[in-house]
Write a structure and sequence with these properties.
Elements lengths: L2 H27 L18 H8 L2 H15 L2 E6 L2 E6 L2 H10 L14 H4 L13 H14 L2 H5 L2 H21 L3 E2 H18 L5 H22 L5 H7 L1 H29 L10 H7 L1 E2 L4 E2 L2 H32 L1 H15 L19 H13 L9 E2 L4 E3 L2 E3 L4 E4 L1 H5 L45 H18 E4 L10 E3 L3 E3 L4 E6 L2
Parallel strand pairs: 2-9
Antiparallel strand pairs: 1-2, 3-13, 4-5, 6-9, 7-8, 10-13, 11-12
Helix pairs in contact: 8-9, 9-14, 10-12, 12-14, 13-14, 14-15, 14-16, 14-18, 15-16
The structure holds protoporphyrin IX containing FE and 2-acetamido-2-deoxy-beta-D-glucopyranose (NAG) (2 copies).
């Protein structure tokens, strides 16, 4: 070999060794520059895994996440579609993010393609980014509809819906040996939310019409959300899906706008004995940034959100609770016993109905509802959150605009908090003097989320659940039909429902 080449190579080797030694010495003297790492990303192959994740049901997603969390810790990233989502399984991290650092974690990711059709460009409470529009819409719902005094104005409607439900269950139980209850529960909740939305009782035909257009959209929402990924590509590849979404929305507008316009005309002659409905409050509302009233599309979007948010969530929870009361007759008996002792049997001969004002005395009933929400939260995740700036959580960087979600169902089953987490034991809530469902001090479970984006309807939901559970078990004995069973397997629809709907034998209690 040429001498100059040998010299050159050995010179290079020398320089390299020197540099390495210098770096080593230097790095032991001064700490490395602080770069915070992003959460671990298990098994990611660009393009392939994001598509695979998109195709998974959320039950499969949950199972996979569980194994990832066991392996990689409580914070992991999954690429779903074109967007990485950070999943948080730990309740104290959820508290740090959602409650202690609420302002940073209260955004929502944009859904650029479908938003124009489904949410009037993010002008619904659940889809609006954290800002003035969201605040106005949310405050309107919270203070104009869900405030105590306003809730009281709907007690007549609740009683009326309850009586219809009891009658329907009675006649169903007389004609059939076993009753599929979810249909009745869903119908009852829907009628109630419809009344609150439009301020009047609608006839059966109309209710069925609206239920149809609402359900067809609701059950396909997950499939439509895929259209937000690579919009230019999916718009072509999934043409049929696009057209279906547009058609569903058009049908929804046709049905809902009839009611909205009718209410608008009536508004000019509103007097004292007419209840104020959600549409009435929306018709008066002004968007703060645009300084204008809501247009018809936005009214449809917001009514749609109101109906969806309050119907399936509550009827799902109700079915899960009733399923457990059937599976565990001693719990059902104890609810009845409490009502008998606290409310008294003698005074209620002519009326079989437990009144709303009596509910606060029923501690065990409350515990049953809470246990139901812990063991079977209707949503196993919250809606996706977006962070507004780079933030460090558990030593991991959550980048600006990053999407974050929380494993609601997992937290309710955490064995460090809940003894025998898979059991159904309402007593566990009895020692706790007033369990805090909002998780302000500490999150033990979060069926309604936590922080600034917490479900604004949680009070109404709890009222509905307590009122209906109390009256359903007070009026009927709920039993497993002969040869039947209560199967607690789950299935993802809009919410996580019973895979095999509850079928029961119902007989009058009194
Ligand atoms: C058992 C019944 C219910 C459950 C389990 C439930 C649960 C939830 C959850 C988990 C969220 C997402 C929170 C987050 O993203 O961090 C949410 C949001 C929401 N819920 Fe509920 N909910 C129920 C009933 C209701 C009712 C009755 C209403 C109103 C009529 C309602 C209205 C809303 C709205 C508007 C949002 C969006 C809030 C925002 O983004 O600021 N929900 N709910
Ligand atoms: C909130 O976020 C900021 C910014 O990343 C961080 O410095 C702070 O420690 C966080 N607070 C908590 C309680 O996690
Ligand atoms: C975050 O989102 C906003 C609004 O969508 C955008 O203007 C901004 O460039 C994004 N920032 C980063 C760092 O992705």
């Amino acid at each position: 070999m040429e001498a100059w080449l040998i010299t050159l190579v050995s010179f290079c080797v020398c320089v390299c060794v020197c540099v390495c030694v210098c770096v080593l010495i230097f790095s032991t003297l001064s700490p490395p520059p602080t770069t915070v790492k992003t959460p671990p990303v298990p098994s990611h192959i660009p393009i392939i895994t994001p598509i695979l994740w998109l195709r998974k049901s959320s039950t499969e997603l949950e199972q996979t996440l569980r194994s990832f969390h066991a392996k990689y810790g409580p914070v992991v990233t999954l690429w779903i579609g074109t967007r990485p989502t950070i999943f948080i399984a730990d309740r104290s991290l959820a508290h740090r993010a959602l409650v202690q650092n609420s302002s940073l974690f209260s955004g929502r990711p944009k859904s650029p393609a479908t938003a124009a059709v489904l949410s009037s460009d993010h002008r619904s409470i659940s889809s609006a980014s954290y800002g003035a529009t969201w605040r106005t819409l949310r405050r309107n719902l919270a203070s104009e509809m869900l405030h105590h005094s306003r809730l009281a104005s709907f007690s007549g409607a609740r009683k009326c819906v309850l009586n219809t439900l009891l009658t329907r269950l009675k006649s169903a139980s007389e004609s059939r040996h076993c009753v599929r209850v979810i249909d009745h529960l869903q119908h009852a909740m829907f009628c109630l939310l419809l009344f609150m939305c439009f301020g009047e009782r609608l006839d059966e035909g109309k209710v069925r019409d609206i239920a149809r257009v609402q359900r067809q959209m609701l059950l396909r929402l997950r499939r439509f959300s895929v259209l937000n990924f690579w919009p230019s590509v999916t718009r072509v590849l999934c043409r049929k899906r696009w057209r279906e979404m547009l058609r569903f929305r058009r049908e929804q507008e046709e049905v809902l706008l009839l009611l909205i316009r009718a209410r608008g005309r009536k508004q000019t002659v509103l007097n004292d004995d007419v209840v104020v409905s959600y549409v009435d409050t929306l018709l008066r509302l002004e968007l703060p940034l645009e300084k204008r009233r809501l247009n018809e599309g936005e009214l449809v979007t917001l009514c749609n959100e109101f109906l969806n948010a309050g119907t399936d969530t509550t009827s799902t929870a109700l079915q899960w609770i009733m399923a457990n009361l059937v599976k565990y007759p001693h719990v059902q008996e104890r609810v009845v016993e409490e009502i008998r002792q606290v409310v008294g049997e003698g005074e209620r001969e002519e009326s079989q109905v437990i009144e709303e004002e009596e509910l606060h005395k029923l501690g065990y009933l409350k515990a049953v509802v809470l246990e139901g929400l812990r063991r079977h939260p209707p949503g196993h995740f919250v809606l996706p959150h977006a962070v507004s700036e780079d933030v460090v959580l558990n030593d991991y960087l959550v980048p600006k605009n990053g999407t974050v979600n929380f494993m609601v169902a997992e937290m309710g089953l955490d064995p460090n908090v809940w003894e025998d987490p898979l059991g159904f034991k309402p007593e566990r809530f009895l020692n706790d003097e007033g369990f805090d469902i909002t998780g302000t001090k500490e999150i033990k479970m979060m069926p309604f989320g936590a922080g600034r984006r917490i479900c604004p309807g949680y009070n109404l939901a709890l009222l509905h659940l307590e009122y209906f559970v109390a009256n359903l078990v007070w009026n009927f004995v709920w039993k497993i039909p002969e040869g039947g069973d209560v199967d607690l397997s789950e299935k993802q629809e809009f919410t996580v429902v019973m895979k095999n709907a509850l079928h029961v034998h119902i007989s009058p209690r009194i």
